[in-house]
Amino acid sequence: MALALLAVSSFGFFVSPWIGDIAIIFANLTLMSGVASLTLLFSTWNHSLTRQKRIIVLVVLTSASLGFLYLMANSAPISRIHLVNATLGIFSIWQIQCLTGVLKKENTYQVKLLIFVELFQLSSRILRSLLLISNPDIYFISLHEEDLLGFSLGIASSLSNVLICILITNFYLDKLMQEHQKSAHAIENGMLDSLNALSMVRDNETGNHIQRTKKYVQLIASRLREMGIYLDELTPSAIANMTKAAPLHDIGKVGIPDNILKKKSSLTDEEWVVMKTHALLGEEVLKAAKVEDAKHTKVLDAAIDIAGGHHECWDGSGYPRGLRGVDIPLAARIMSIADMYDALVSERVYKEKWSHKDACTEILRLKGIRFDPAVVDAFLFERENFAHIAELYGDEK
């Protein structure tokens, strides 16, 4: 309502030279109504709107409107200018107070600019009235006969309403975009949780394995960034995405038969060939879950890289594609160490638990063979934190 009234008011002032008093009345009444509506709007932003305040706004607006109509019939334009300036000034002060409260909670550029525009309008109205008061002999029948400075101040104040409309519209568009992003992230998180649950139902790994590997990935990625390595790929958001994606590294095991997946003894060569297909299967499952035109799928992108590439080796001897060196996605290279360390230091039905020291020695031995040398260096810097996480989130027996 506020934006519509201000737009109508601007149109009324524009056509007033041709239509005359009717347009002047229409423009001023809609202007005061629009500004009054803005006062109520900004009060809702500040969560301070009450029934009492609504009544006060209505009383001020009604009194000013009746006073304007009376002065229109019985007085010169100067009196009407003072009345309108006083009314709008009261509402401007109220709006500035509300917006200042909003700024404490939402430090957005729109609110800051709105306060600036309100201060400009208040100043121009005060200055315009002071100019008229300082020249008591001035007299004009039509607003368009006012002196250049006074008329310019009035026009500037009216034009600034256009900026207010733009800022309010932009503010709501930003709010709408934020809600859309929250909804998109909520949907994505829900989908990731569902995929995680699916992975855990089929896999023989534990929930603590998920927690440990997530934290391992975050440690290595953060350490690499601190070391100044792979800075372009390891932005804070990228690290967060690959950390969220880490639990999905073995989701492809949903397609592996139980007689192989849950076998307690060593796999035969034929069974091992089937087991190794879980990397490509996981990649395909995650690609199928991704909506092609979605804008918020960075976590899924990282999960696809991890699922399909965490068994690749730095020297090209890994699977499923035999990728070599930096051709292997960075998230997969990080996940590779996190997954192997956790597998080594955890007890399984088919293997004994390794010590932390032996696991570190083995990973160091595979530097430049299975693992990215830079990622191994980052792991070694964080190896004590790895031991702490392994103990803190150990599997219950």
From TrEMBL:
<keyword id="KW-0812">Transmembrane</keyword>
<dbReference type="InterPro" id="IPR052020">
    <property type="entry name" value="Cyclic_di-GMP/3'3'-cGAMP_PDE"/>
</dbReference>
<keyword id="KW-1133">Transmembrane helix</keyword>
<feature type="transmembrane region" description="Helical">
    <location>
        <begin position="151"/>
        <end position="173"/>
    </location>
</feature>
<feature type="transmembrane region" description="Helical">
    <location>
        <begin position="79"/>
        <end position="99"/>
    </location>
</feature>
<dbReference type="Pfam" id="PF13487">
    <property type="entry name" value="HD_5"/>
</dbReference>
<protein>
    <recommendedName>
        <fullName>HD-GYP domain-containing protein</fullName>
    </recommendedName>
</protein>
<keyword id="KW-0472">Membrane</keyword>
<feature type="domain" description="HD-GYP">
    <location>
        <begin position="184"/>
        <end position="395"/>
    </location>
</feature>
<feature type="transmembrane region" description="Helical">
    <location>
        <begin position="55"/>
        <end position="73"/>
    </location>
</feature>
<dbReference type="InterPro" id="IPR037522">
    <property type="entry name" value="HD_GYP_dom"/>
</dbReference>
<feature type="transmembrane region" description="Helical">
    <location>
        <begin position="22"/>
        <end position="43"/>
    </location>
</feature>
<dbReference type="InterPro" id="IPR003607">
    <property type="entry name" value="HD/PDEase_dom"/>
</dbReference>
